[in-house]
Every structure is written in C-alpha cells, then in structure tokens.
Amino acid sequence: MGHQIIRQPDGKLAVFSSFTDTWILFDASPEELLEYYADRAAEEARKQTQETLAQVLAGHPTHVYYQFAMSFDEANRESADHDGPVWEGKGWTEETYAKADGTED
To answer: The pTM is what?
Structure first.
C-alpha cells in the first residue's frame, strides 16, 4: 500500500506515504481513516470494474482474463458440473452443453 498510519504526539492520526516520502493526512480520527480508505478502495473497485466491463463489452474478455476467459455456455456448464445454479433461459438447450463441453458431434 505504501502508506503508514502513525499516531501524532497529540493522539490524532496521520498518514505517511512511502511513495512520495511525505505526509498525506494529518489530524485524522480512526473513523475518518476508515472512511478515507474505504472510499479509496471503492473508487479503485469501480475503476477496475469499468475497465473489465469495457473489455468484455467490446468482445475482448481475454484481455482481462487471458486464457481463463470463458464463454457463457462454458461457465454455465462449469456451474452445472459443480452443482451450482444453471441458467436455462430462452435459447438454452442440451446442445449448448455439448458445445461448451466439446462433445458436440
């Protein structure tokens, strides 16, 4: 993370960055630091999810998941094979299992 939370002489908290070797926050309470880091984590999660969505929606899931990218049918079959939920909506047939399974004739 590169941040170190340090207690100030007055008992409040400060954050030192080892990336910049400078203070980045002073006079914080534990609650304020929890909120600060939760907000940062949420922001990073949104950014990563947006990047993943952009690749998947553009038809490039391998740019995110590399050789582990699965089609819907492959993931559905994997879920079924592990006694998980299976989507059986419109267009779903046993043939799609065969395609995902590689057993199609």
So the answer is: 0.68
